[in-house]
Amino acid sequence: MAKEPLSEAGLHFDELNKLRVLEPEVAQQTTELKEECKDFVDKIGQFQKVVGGLIELVDKLAKEAETEKMKAIGARNLLKSVEKQREAQQQQLQALIIEKKMQLERYRIEYEALSKVEAEQNEFIDQFILQK
Questions:
Q1: The whole model's pTM is what?
Q2: C-alpha span between 116 and 109 (Å, rounded)
Q3: Based on CB atoms within 10 Å of each CB, which residue in 28, 65, 71, 132 is the most buried?
Q4: Alpha-carbon dihedral of residues 94, 95, 100, 106, nearest 10 degrees?
């Protein structure tokens, strides 16, 4: 009965019979909430560590991907350069082939002309020998 006037005044006795301002049930709920909050904060800390590790891993993979991308771009540019060099070389060789064909045609014409001259000279020699 002495507890009721104290309760009305906002004072309560706990399980150890200590005088408290809060009701024992409210104090217990507050303690449970405090422990749950501590567990929650610990879990949030662990979550932040896991997320931090994941972010580091993703950053590392992004850097590796960027490096590979640059290597691929370099290889593609090198391939284009080699292709252009081959095209230029092919054009040079085709020009050389055309030049050599023209030279061959000139030599063929010169050969025919010299063959005619040789035939004419042989005929002249034959006629000269026959006239003697």
A1: 0.50
A2: 11
A3: 28
A4: 130
Q: Return d(Cα 92, Cα 76) in angstroms, integer.
A: 24
* Joined tokens for residue 17: 């019979």
87 CB burial (10 A radius; 0-12, 13-18, 19+): exposed
Distance linking the first and last C-alpha atoms of the chain:
175
Within 8 A by CB and 6+ apart from 13, the residues are 3, 6, 19, 20, 24
Question: Domain coordinates of the chain in residue numbers?
Answer: 3-131
In this structure, what DSSP letter does residue 132 have?
A: -
Q: Which two tokens stand for residue 47?
A: 């979550």
Residue in this structure with the two tokens 């909050």, named with its chain if needed = 37
